[in-house]
Amino acid sequence: PDRPPLPQLRAVRDDDDPIAPPPDRKAKRAKKPKKKRRGGFRMPWIFTFLFGLVLIGGTLAAMVGYVAFLHYSEDLPEVSQLANYDPPVVSRVYAGDGRLLAEYAVENRVFVPITAIPKRVINAFLSAEDKTFYTHPGIDIPSMIKSAWINLLNYGRDRRPIGASTITQQVTKNFLLSNELSYGRKIKEAILALRI
Asked: 114-126 pLDDT, tens per residue?
């Protein structure tokens, strides 16, 4: 019949102790060394919290800014009317011999083409009014942040708020909007300056 084979017996020598206790399993196990963490710098929880707070705050600020943009961009005048601007100038009456007899004007303006203005005068005007005229897209964001900070520090004092209007924003205020002193007008001014 089919029986499984018997296990082979071990020969017992005289120096072997047949009644020896079983080997200690814990002694055989060597403690595994702790693995060192791989990877770079791990931020402490406070930095993670602050990063999350800034991320959420930035997202909320962007959403509020977008809603404000949609609200204030309604019913704005077209910037295309600036291309056809014809400023009122002085009407001059001359005598037959070429002498100037009289000038008639509501505002005493004389049109001068930009090619007739000396470069030094242009640079002086840009230095006083808008140093970054050739580099910004219509609004100067660092100057706006600086003026907002100063206005926040001066809040509650009897001081007029300072502005950070670029030349483009001044054009939109003078030709397309009113001289009203409000944050709503400043937002509209910035939107129109970006469109120009």
From this structure: 889 999 998 898 8
